[in-house]
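4.2 Preliminary Data

To establish feasibility before requesting continued support, the project team ran the inverse folding procedure on a target of 91 residues. The structure was first converted into the token representation described in Section 3, and no sequence information of any kind was made available to the design step. The complete token record follows.
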């Protein structure tokens, strides 16, 4: 609400933001990280396909997928996303 009225919000970049595409994909951004859940290709089973992870501070065009090299960030963002979506989290 503060941001809506043009006021500064403390730790604004650390507040997770969730996005949903018309194709049913979810994405979450927290700080410099953006995670896209699943795969865009409708012929691919999204239950077995990894998503994408980008460092928007260094890669604003989302050309370098860092999913495999940052498992801790992937896990943190997936836990955040599932919590926001109200899904059970598997451990």
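Position-by-position output of the design step:
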């Amino acid at each position: 609400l503060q941001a809506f009225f043009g006021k500064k919000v403390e730790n604004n970049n650390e507040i997770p933001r969730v996005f949903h595409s018309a194709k049913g994909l979810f994405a979450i951004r927290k700080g410099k990280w953006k995670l896209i859940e699943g795969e865009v290709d409708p012929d691919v089973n999204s239950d077995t396909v990894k998503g994408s992870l980008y460092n928007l501070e260094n890669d604003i065009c989302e050309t370098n997928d860092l999913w495999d090299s940052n498992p801790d960030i992937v896990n943190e963002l997936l836990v955040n996303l599932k919590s926001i979506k109200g899904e059970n989290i598997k451990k």
